[in-house]
Amino acid sequence: MSQDEFLKILEKSLQGFSTDEKREILYDYEEHFCLGKENGKTNNEIIKELGNPLDIAKHYKSNRVASINENQNNNYRENYNNQNSNNNYTENSNTQRSKKSNPMNDDSFSYSYTPNKLPKILIFLLLTPFVILPSIGIILGLYGSILGLFATSLAVVISGVALSLGGIFGTTILELQIISFPNISMIPMPALLFGGIGTIALGALFFIGTLCLIKLLNRGTSKFFSLILSLLK
């Protein structure tokens, strides 16, 4: 087979291709023949390397079909994406219009409710003369009692100190009589000392107990006033 026969068979087999496409393909194979002849090869050797022209034409046709299918797929994807973008735009527009038409759907919309405080105020006014004022009086009385307990505990401690001093130095210090009750001279001084120590300890316990009572009273008073204030909220 000669070069011209090879190229004619290839040209006839490329049916469906445009003139420019055929010319480009044939030009490539003419170049192959020229290069082969420059290297000292015969037509048969060059054709053997290139292959059957019918198979070459089939190869070009299959590549052309694959290229067309790929272009069609790309066009389909582009159209599909454009359609989806248009649909999304339409949905967003509809959503915005629905939010504008119905403010309850807006995320920034907040529903405020102001409770009516009139019933709570009435309850507070009704409780004031019967519960609140008497309770305040009772609380003040309890604080007064605790203040008296503090004074009593201090008096007991001072008495214990006086008895202890009497047990150590006697009933008179620098001509000042620190203990004065009948028959005090008949009581031994060690007894006065230990009695004074016991009295100081009793006064200290009394004082600690009074501190515990005032803490409990403060806690109860705080809860009471918190309950009263909650009626006005």
Structure commentary:
The protein has 6 helices and 2 strands, in the order H-H-H-H-H-E-E-H. It is 78% helix and 2% strand. It is mainly alpha-helical. Helix 1 packs parallel to helix 4 (53-101), helix 2 packs across helix 3 (43-50) and helix 5 packs antiparallel against helix 6 (189-230). The protein has a two-stranded antiparallel sheet. A hairpin with a 2-residue loop joins strand 1 (172-173) and strand 2 (176-177).
Key phrases:
233 residues, mainly alpha, two-stranded antiparallel ribbon
Short overview:
The protein is an all-alpha fold. 78% of the residues lie in helices and 2% in strands.
Furnish the topology, listing elements before pairings.
Elements: H1 3-13, H2 19-38, H3 43-50, H4 53-101, H5 118-169, E1 172-173, E2 176-177, H6 189-230
Antiparallel strand pairs: 1-2
Helix pairs in contact: 1-2, 1-4, 2-3, 5-6
Protein name: Putative membrane protein
Pfam families: HAAS
Organism: Clostridium algidicarnis DSM 15099
- Given helix and strand content, the structural type is mainly alpha
Q: Which blocks of ≥5 consecutive residues have pLDDT under 50?
A: 101-113
Beta content comes to under 5%
DSSP strand count: 2
Major sheet strand order: 1-2
Keywords: Membrane, Transmembrane, Transmembrane helix
Region (Disordered): 68-106
Pfam families: HAAS (PF22564)
Protein name: Putative membrane protein
